[in-house]
Amino acid sequence: MFAKHCVRTLMVALLVCGGTACGSDGGTSTQKSSACARFFTFEGREYRDVGDFPVEAGSRVGTAVQPACDQHGADGEKRGPDKAAYEVKGVSADVAIAVGDDPDDVEIFVSYDGTELPPEVQKLEDASR
Predict the structure, then answer these.
(1) Please, which residues have CB within 8 angstroms of residue 68's CB and are 6 or more apart in sequence?
(2) Is the Cβ–Cβ distance between 41 and 47 less than 8 Å?
């Protein structure tokens, strides 16, 4: 009886998660990884999602483009709409941009190699704790 319950629970969990990473990975924001992670391109650079911490958006600097994901037969279709790109107060737009529909509702995206946040972005993340 116990074994049947465990198998049934496991099957439900797999159906709910759909084979994706359910829940937190337990890592830091710099350890996020996915074959098709969220990112935008802006002025020839790729900006990655580094987690959800508040930033202050400055003036609008242009439009961030969300390119297609090459995974799972996406056939080059865009994953989402283009969004406004804003400067992040205290950080060069070469390093990070705030992306959103309006400056009061943005997420930070960073142009980096994915191993260690640039010091000015790490400082913002630390200050948000």
Answers:
(1) 74, 75, 76, 77, 78, 79
(2) yes
